[in-house]
Design goal:
Keywords: Membrane, Transmembrane, Transmembrane helix. The structure is a single chain. The chain is mainly alpha-helical. The chain is built from 7 helices and no strands.
């Protein structure tokens, strides 16, 4: 069986014929999560809700979601796995930006792993009353997660845009159909 330069089988549908669909699903998951954080921020800073009541949209009917370290860790893990699984479909500049988002998500995942371990063992960082991540020692949790989601989302979007509009060499290396039709081909058809 032929292999892609990444070492994965060339016939792997996730990064070939299903790459566009998989990226779309991944983007929906990321935007939904990002929206939850933005709604929580609006609840706190615009509506003036107390932190304990500002739970985003899903946290209102399901309050345990906000306090569940398992849920937060699970999402961080899904994000990490998504970045890793979809990475082979990217080439050139888009791959560079995807790698930046992946690197940031690795750190974000480690922070959530630290929070989960504290929640499971009851031994919080520096004797804090609640599970605390490393950067949370400097920045409150709500603001920190807004920041993390922003700095993962931005390079991810840049990667997706560059992936849809590759240079010729990048297009030649692509094994998926994510790239839009080159502008010169559209102009030449008229």
């Amino acid at each position: 069986m032929a292999t892609h330069p990444t070492g994965l089988p060339a016939a792997s549908g996730l990064n070939t014929r299903h790459h566009r669909t998989a990226l779309g699903i991944f983007l929906i998951i990321v935007v939904a999560h990002w929206a939850e954080h933005l709604v929580q921020a609006v609840q706190i800073y615009v509506l003036g809700w107390p932190l304990a009541e500002a739970r985003g949209l899903l946290g209102l009917p399901f309050p345990w979601l906000v306090t569940s370290e398992w849920m937060h860790y699970g999402y961080a893990l899904i994000m990490l796995v998504g970045f890793i699984l979809l990475r082979p479909g990217f080439t050139g500049r888009a791959r560079t930006w995807w790698n930046i988002a992946l690197g940031i998500q690795v750190w974000h995942h480690l922070e959530h792993l630290l929070l989960l371990i504290q929640a499971l063992t009851g031994n919080n960082l520096l004797g804090r009353p609640a599970p605390t991540s490393i950067i949370q020692l400097l920045v409150p949790r709500v603001e920190l997660h807004l920041f993390y989601n922003a700095i993962v989302f931005a390079p991810m979007v840049v990667a997706m845009l560059l992936h849809r509009r590759p240079h010729e060499a990048e297009r030649a290396a692509m094994r998926c159909s994510c790239a839009s039709v080159p502008v010169r081909l559209i102009r030449g058809a008229t």
